[in-house]
Amino acid sequence: MIWKGEVLLMLWLSIIGIAALSLLYIGYQRKTSRKVKKASNLVHLDQFRKNRDKQSVQKVQKCGKCNKYKRLHFYADPVGKITGLCKECENNESSKKMLRI
């Protein structure tokens, strides 16, 4: 037969055990998160190269006059409208009136 005092003792021991395990888990998580922060100052070249390649693809845009996808130079007309022109369209008479940005 289990006594009333034994039940309360087992209940308190289980509560203390759960609290101790949760404190150990929180301490472990904090310790590992500090290690990650220290290692995050490293820059891996593979990731840098992938990002650089993605940026070079994004530099090709649609020309404002011929609608071809090429690398653009941006101009502002006298009204203030910004237009991106490719090298072929830069030589037109209308683009010579524009200011290069």
Describe, in plain words, how this protein is organized in 3D.
By secondary structure, this protein is an alpha+beta fold. The protein is 57% helix and 16% strand. The chain is built from four helices and five strands. Strands 4-3-5 form a three-stranded antiparallel beta sheet. A two-stranded antiparallel ribbon has the order 1-2. β1 and β2 form a beta hairpin. The N and C termini lie far apart (91 Å).
What's the count of strands? 5
**Structural class assignment:** alpha+beta
- Strand percentage, roughly? 15-25%
Shape: rod-shaped
How many alpha or pi helices?
4
The SSE string, one letter per element, is HHEEEEHHE
Uncertain segments of ≥5 residues (pLDDT<50)?
A: none
- Helix amount, in percent? 55-70%
Cα-atom radius of gyration: 33 Å
Overall pLDDT = 81
Please give the largest β-sheet.
Answer: 3 strands, antiparallel
- Neighbour order of strands in the largest sheet: 4-3-5
- The N- to C-terminal Cα distance equals 91 Å
Give the secondary structure arrangement, pairings included.
Blueprint: H1 4-39, H2 45-58, E1 60-62, E2 69-71, E3 73-76, E4 82-85, H3 87-90, H4 93-96, E5 99-100
Antiparallel strand pairs: 1-2, 3-4, 3-5
Short key terms for the protein model shown above:
101 residues; alpha+beta; two-stranded antiparallel ribbon; 4 helices; 16% strand
